[in-house]
C-alpha cells in the first residue's frame, strides 16, 4: 500500500491520520498514513528513512515546517512565500514542498462559513509559522488591509517585508493594540493560547468582528473566550482550516479532493 505520514514533535495528538483515513475510505483510496514523532535533530534523518521505505507523501507540523522546506529539492511559490512547507510529495526521487495552510484557511472561511473576505480590515496577531503560512492566502483572497502585530516587532516587520505589499500590509507594536480601533476580523496566529492566556484590549472588536483562532482545542480557548467577552458574535477555531488543509494535501497526492463536511462535523462534535 501507498505510504504517507505526518511528522511532528509532539505528534501523538495530531488529527491528521484520522482525517486522511476518513478521506481515503470516502473515496475508496487504499493507503497507510502514520504519525511519526521526530525531534528537530532527527527530523531530516527520519524523513529520509521514510522516503527510503517507499514513503510517497508527508504532512509536516510543528516544529518542522521551515526545516521541511529547506529539505525540498523544489517548492511551490506559496511554500516559498510562507518560508515553510506542510505538504511534501515525492517527485523524481526528491521532495517537492507545498504549503496548504493558507488555502485551507481561506477555503474554510469562504466556502464553509460563507464569509466574504473582500474589503476586510484584518488584524493578524503573531508573525511565526502560522502567520507566515496564512497571510499570503488572505491577501490573495482580496482582504483590504492586513495589520500584523507581534510581541517581537522585528518578526512582524520581516513578515510584512516578505509579503511585499506595503500598500495593504502594516505593522504595529503590541502596545499599540489599544489604539488601533476595531477590525472586521481578528486572527490569532500566536501560540500564546498553549501557554494559557492572552491579553488583548476589547477595543479591537465589535459584535460584528469575526474572531478566528488558527489553533483548536484547549489552545484556542483563551483567545475565543476573549472574543466572546469582547462581544464577537462569530468565533471560529482552527478545526475547519485543519480539515481543509488536509483536503488540499490529499488532492495533491491522490488527485481528488474529498468532501470535507462529514469529517469536519465529526471532529467538531468531538471537540464539543
Ligand atoms: P507557530 O508555528 O505556531 O506560529 P512560532 O513560529 O513559534 O509557532 O510562532 C509563535 C508565535 O506566537 C510568535 O508570533 C510568537 O511571538 P514572538 O515572535 O514574539 O515569539 C507568538 N507568541 C507566543 N507566545 C506568546 C505570548 N504569550 N504572547 C504573545 N505572543 C506570543
From TrEMBL:
Residues 6-88 form the Shikimate dehydrogenase substrate binding N-terminal domain. The keyword NADP applies. GO terms for molecular function: NADP binding; shikimate 3-dehydrogenase (NADP+) activity. Pfam families: SDH_C (PF18317), Shikimate_DH (PF01488), Shikimate_dh_N (PF08501). Keywords: Amino-acid biosynthesis, Aromatic amino acid biosynthesis, NADP, Oxidoreductase. NADP(+) binds at residues 77, 126-130, 150-155, 214, 238. InterPro entries: Aminoacid_DH-like_N_sf, NAD(P)-bd_dom_sf, SDH_C, Shikimate_DH, Shikimate_DH-bd_N, Shikimate_DH_fam, Shikm_DH/Glu-tRNA_Rdtase. It catalyses: shikimate + NADP(+) = 3-dehydroshikimate + NADPH + H(+). Coiled coil: none annotated. The keyword Oxidoreductase applies. CDD domains: NAD_bind_Shikimate_DH. SUPFAM superfamilies: Aminoacid dehydrogenase-like, N-terminal domain, NAD(P)-binding Rossmann-fold domains. Pathway: Metabolic intermediate biosynthesis; chorismate biosynthesis; chorismate from D-erythrose 4-phosphate and phosphoenolpyruvate: step 4/7. The active site is at 65 (proton acceptor). It is an enzyme of class 1 (oxidoreductase). Its EC number is 1.1.1.25. Involved in the biosynthesis of the chorismate, which leads to the biosynthesis of aromatic amino acids. Catalyzes the reversible NADPH linked reduction of 3-dehydroshikimate (DHSA) to yield shikimate (SA). Belongs to the shikimate dehydrogenase family. PANTHER family: BIFUNCTIONAL 3-DEHYDROQUINATE DEHYDRATASE_SHIKIMATE DEHYDROGENASE, CHLOROPLASTIC, SHIKIMATE DEHYDROGENASE. This is Shikimate dehydrogenase (NADP(+)).
Amino acid at each position: 500500500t501507498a505510504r504517507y505520514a505526518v511528522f511532528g514533535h509532539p505528534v501523538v495528538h495530531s488529527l491528521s491520520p484520522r482525517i486522511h483515513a476518513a478521506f481515503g475510505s470516502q473515496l475508496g483510496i487504499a493507503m497507510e498514513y502514520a504519525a511519526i514523532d521526530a525531534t528537530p535533530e532527527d527530523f531530516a534523518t527520519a524523513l529520509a528513512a521514510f522516503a527510503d521505505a517507499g514513503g510517497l507523501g508527508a504532512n509536516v507540523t510543528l516544529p518542522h515546517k521551515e526545516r521541511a522546506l529547506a529539505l525540498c529539492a523544489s517548492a511551490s511559490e506559496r511554500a516559498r512565500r510562507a518560508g515553510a512547507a506542510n505538504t511534501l510529495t515525492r517527485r523524481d526521487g526528491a521532495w517537492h514542498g507545498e504549503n496548504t495552510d493558507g488555502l485551507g484557511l481561506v477555503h474554510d472561511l469562504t466556502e464553509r462559513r460563507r464569509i466574504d473576505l473582500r474589503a476586510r480590515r484584518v488584524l493578524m496577531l503573531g508573525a511565526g509559522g502560522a502567520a507566515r503560512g496564512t497571510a499570503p492566502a488572505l491577501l490573495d483572497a482580496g482582504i483590504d488591509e492586513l495589520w500584523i502585530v507581534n510581541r517581537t516587532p522585528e518578526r512582524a516587520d520581516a513578515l510584512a517585508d516578505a509579503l511585499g505589499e506595503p500598500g495593504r500590509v502594516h505593522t504595529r507594536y503590541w502596545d499599540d493594540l489599544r489604539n488601533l480601533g476595531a477590525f472586521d476580523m481578528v486572527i490569532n496566529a500566536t501560540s500564546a493560547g498553549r501557554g494559557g492566556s492572552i491579553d488583548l484590549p476589547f477595543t479591537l472588536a465589535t459584535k460584528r468582528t469575526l474572531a478566528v483562532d488558527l489553533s483548536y482545542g484547549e489552545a484556542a480557548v483563551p483567545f475565543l473566550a476573549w472574543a466572546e467577552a469582547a462581544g464577537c458574535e462569530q468565533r471560529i477555531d482552527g478545526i475547519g482550516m485543519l480539515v481543509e488543509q488536509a483536503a488540499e494535501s490529499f488532492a495533491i497526492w491522490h488527485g481528488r479532493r474529498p468532501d470535507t463536511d462529514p469529517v469536519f462535523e465529526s471532529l467538531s462534535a468531538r471537540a464539543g
